[in-house]
Specification:
alpha/beta, four-stranded mixed β-sheet, binds ligand EPZ
């Protein structure tokens, strides 16, 4: 397993280009299952999770050509099974459930199971498909769904589930009648998916709001579309600039997708200004502590909570970080503490008391965003920080050590 070693103390400077969004590309690639026609998607990021979903879709008969600009064709679906050995490596595999049932009338998808950040059930996905007329059984760890043509329905999500909204929006695109999703998630990745589906001929309105209306059609065409930039990658680099006393240009991001973070970073004393293709980000002369509460979009994103916690470990005061989306997303706390951070977990909140300095140490990544927070801490720690199990990082960050090195960080990957 690869490791990354970071030598702290270098202020970041220069330009970083943001890659396509993992969490937009995954549902959009799954959407190709809805049509027999070829689709072409540009700005596909080079990530492990993308390789995984391509492997899963290929096992169903989907054909690919290209990479960053990718042609995807599901002319014939030879299998409607998403096997456990693939799904256990990437929960987002659940995104084939809705499209498979809509296109073929059946699906056998392994239950994703929990992961480092929580139980992450998919009960809301299942209930919505049942509301649309699908018969869904849970057997031997698999979701077994069958349906004739799905029927439009009024769906009420108990909470705004991102992949749940995406799964059902895709299923409803081919249903008979109108489906209305209430309490839908509002993330920009959902809007990107809706735009792709509309390009394929789907009739969708309200994406980006908490009520999405889909009028089913009998078939969908191919389309060409671009994946939006990754707001979580952009936010990670913005926080890194703030931590290291640096000044960088984050190019290719969409500032509107980052407003909750930008607002908080300005409160810490950072200067953040729009430039022609992104944001210019400058560190605060003195880092002020701020409180964070993660919420569904447009609230502060849970996927930037760990990175913001790393930043607050060296701020001048007390920061209360409340994680309201997942029940166990503080796995990075113990690793940050090994570097000298002063953090106390109290229920769903972490109280971070700023310290003057962090110290390099051997650490272990536990999940994708926790490993990003260790990279950030390493950028400012005295001495060397070694991060093991970086396969977590490679799932969601494209060439992270190359991008940080280009900004002046002293960082290298040790391939075992
Ligand atoms: C998506 O996960 C993202 N993944 C996650 O990003 C992100 O953290 C999360 O949304 C929240 O923004 C992808 O888009 C591929 P949810 P998802 O369904 O859809 C509960 C990353 O680092 N819930 O919005 O799985 C669930 O347990 C990843 O890139 C149910 O109870 O998240 C959680 O507490 C990590 N029942 C809350 O809802 C359900 O049926 C939000 O989950 C579904 C969800």
């Amino acid at each position: 397993m690869d490791k990354i070693v970071v030598y702290g103390g270098q202020p970041l400077a220069g330009d970083v280009s943001i890659s396509g969004a993992k969490n937009a590309a995954l549902p959009i690639l799954a959407a190709a299952l809805l049509t027999a026609k070829p689709c072409t998607f540009s700005n596909i990021p080079d990530l492990m999770d993308i390789k995984t979903i391509k492997k899963l879709l290929a096992s169903m008969g989907v054909r690919f050509s290209g990479d960053r600009t990718l042609e995807v064709c599901a002319e014939t679906i030879t299998s409607s099974v998403a096997p456990y050995d693939l799904v256990k490596t990437m929960r987002a595999s659940i995104l084939v459930l809705g499209p498979l049932v809509a296109r073929t009338g059946r699906a056998r998808v392994s239950l994703p199971g929990g992961c480092a950040i929580g139980a992450r059930p998919v009960n809301l996905h299942i209930k919505a498909l049942q509301d649309m007329g699908a018969k869904v059984d849970l057997r031997e760890g698999y979701i077994e769904a069958t349906a004739g043509r799905l029927k439009g329905a009024e769906i009420y999500f108990d909470l705004p589930t991102v992949t749940g909204t995406e799964n059902i929006m895709m299923a409803a695109a081919l249903a008979d009648g109108v489906t209305v999703l209430h309490n839908a998630a509002r993330e920009p990745e959902i809007v990107n998916l809706a735009d792709v589906l509309k390009g394929m001929g789907a009739k969708i309105s309200g994406a980006g709001s908490d009520v999405i209306t889909i009028t089913g059609v009998t078939s969908l065409s191919g389309t060409e579309a671009a994946i939006i930039p990754d707001r979580i990658e952009a936010g990670t680099f913005m926080i890194a600039a703030g931590m290291t006393g640096g000044e960088i240009n984050v190019r290719g991001c969409i500032p509107q997708h980052l407003e909750a973070l930008t607002n908080k970073l300005r409160d810490t004393g950072m200067t953040i200004e729009p430039i022609d293709d992104g944001l210019k980000v400058k560190a605060a002369p003195k880092i002020h502590s701020v409180d964070i509460k993660t919420l569904p979009y447009p609230g502060f994103p849970t996927d930037l909570q760990a990175q913001m916690m790393a930043y607050m470990t060296i701020a001048s005061g007390l920061s209360v970080i409340s994680e309201t989306v997942f029940e166990n997303r503080f796995m990075h706390v113990s690793e940050l503490a090994r570097m000298g951070a002063d953090i106390a977990i109290q229920g769903g909140s972490a109280v971070v008391r700023g310290v003057p300095k962090l110290f390099g140490a051997p650490t272990m990544a536990t999940d994708l965003r926790a490993s990003a927070s260790l990279i950030l801490a390493g950028l400012v720690a005295q001495g060397a920080t070694e991060i093991s199990r970086v396969y977590h990082l490679d799932r969601g960050y494209e060439g992270i050590e190359k991008k940080f090195s280009a900004l002046g960080a002293k960082m290298k990957r040790i391939t075992s």
